[in-house]
Amino acid sequence: MMNRVVTILLVILWSSFLWELGLEFFKYYIGTTIFQLSSLIYLFVYIFLLFTKKIKLNLYIKKQFIIALISLLLFSLVTTIYSPEIKLGFYDAVKNIYYLLLLVTSYHFLQTLKHDQIISFLRNVGLLSMIVILGSSLYIFITSDINTLRPSYQGKFTISIFRDYNMMVVSLLSSLFLFMIKRKSNVKNYIIFLIFIVIIIVLGVYSGSRRSIIVYFPIAISVSFYFIIGFNFQKFIKSFLVILCGLIIMITLVYSVDQDKMMNQLDNQYSALESRFNRGVGLITGDYDDTSSRTERWENAMIVYNNSTIVELFIGKGHRSYFNNELFIREDGSRDSPHNFILSELIQGGIVKIFILGIFLFILIVDYKRNKNHIDLWSKVYINSFLLIWSATVFISGLGFLTSKQFFLYLLGYLIIVYKIPNKVQVKGVNSAG
User: Which stretch of 168-177, 206-215, 367-376 has the lowest confidence by average pLDDT?
Assistant: First the structure.
């Protein structure tokens, strides 16, 4: 009974990593977020279980993995000492260490469960996240009421509960990948997957997410096809036709509505959807091109790094130090960033930070390749698609590589899928897999 309660609590906690990035509802109405509330309750319960010896202090975790991750986070914490933005940098570094604590303790607790219960946990995280995000978007679309879910929002009408609609698409894709983990490789599951891909594509387009059209959807579809179809041409054509038919049906349904009547009935609130749609496809047509602003940020970042001292070239200027540089302070006083994780990490932690990050990513890739023979098809889709999508995200818009707690959810799934969880480790103390 206790295991079931804690597992439900963990599902709520880890799903909030995906759906609560933009939802202000709970913060506004109860004064805190579901993440903050559930994480504190979970840690209290976890400590209680340890002290009452309901769970043993046996932790089976890959030694190289955890050392590299801890080194990366601790180095960020150390660099706050000499950062001109010491308060902001320290808060961000400690926040990531808190996520690491949740990652390790959750992985430890999951070792007390059976294999099928662990897989159900991952699937339920994805399912709950999709229900919240899609349900919220549907509510906004039907009622045209966005301020109930986003009380402080004052911009144009949008069906996204996220401040960053690009991250809404990342969260939905991540949720779908989690929901499909360890499922059978049959036509039924392929169709379910493709239907949700179509829904997410339409939602991404109508939220104005150009990055989704240009980056996320091609990655998600191509990587998924690679594993699902295995370059079987006939299956590829059939799957392509399913997606194409789905898109045609959904577009037809949207444009079959009397748009003039709908606009009048809803006080023209939905007119913003058209502008967001045009914004979404504008990068293809050339009508909306803001790449120059991004490349300008990259050039400014190189100027900042090239003006470093010899010591700063190696250990950086400090965590979140670029917020203090005049090249990243806007006219209204707000702060900007390099919008590229490599340049951000170079400025923050220099060559040393890039080296540590490189080792961590190398371990992730190598260990996946070593263990991929025991990994099922849908788990391969999750591992590869999310890492590629995340890498693309932080490459074109990242404050750093660990710029959001979403990646810690990915790491939890990675630990479970790639390294597996042994059945009830018997050795007392803390065990590390070499």
Answer: 206-215
